[in-house]
Amino acid sequence: GSGNSVIPHKLYQTIQRDVAKVGKLTRAWVFTDGISCGSSSVIGHMLSTHGYPVPAIAFGSWGTIDNTESLRNPEEDPTTLVYYDPQTSNPENSLDPNHTHLLLIDDGTVKNTKCNDSVRRDFENYLLSQF
Fold it and tell me: Residue 2, exposed/middle/buried by CB under 10 A (0-12, 13-18, 19+)?
């Protein structure tokens, strides 16, 4: 969930090692809401620092993220890179920089972290049906 719970260091290391190991063995993709606090941040950090190629995919809500203006491509050219600086945003509403991919859904809602749960569930079910 989103929150800032403190995890004891030894437990954190154990979870980090095991999540990365399982992800590598199963070739799993890990989905979170991509917010830079709570379990999304912990999972993103775990996967990015352990050295295993496990995709951490942020499936979040455009209206929840602060500083989305920096994500807009002013040239509207799909090959132009845009950069997001999480330091310019409230940590509870910024994207976690440790995710490998971002899928942001814009359904018109603002500051509602649960708005795309059904969309994410449908997307996950679609992916599962392909295997």
Answer: middle
Q: How far, rounded to the nearest angstrom, does the alpha carbon of residue 65 sit from its chain's CA centroid? A: 11
Length of the chain: 131
Which residue is it, tokens 């649960």?
114
pLDDT, greater one: 12 or 4: 12
- 101 DSSP β-pair partners: 57
pLDDT score for 51: 66
Residue type, 36: S
3-state secondary structure 55-114: CEEEEEEHHHCCCHHHHCCCCCCCCCCCCCCHHHCCHHHCECCCCCEEEEECCCCCCCCC
Residue pLDDT, tens place only, 102-126: 888 887 777 766 666 788 888 889 9
Hey, which residues does 30 pair with through a beta bridge? 56
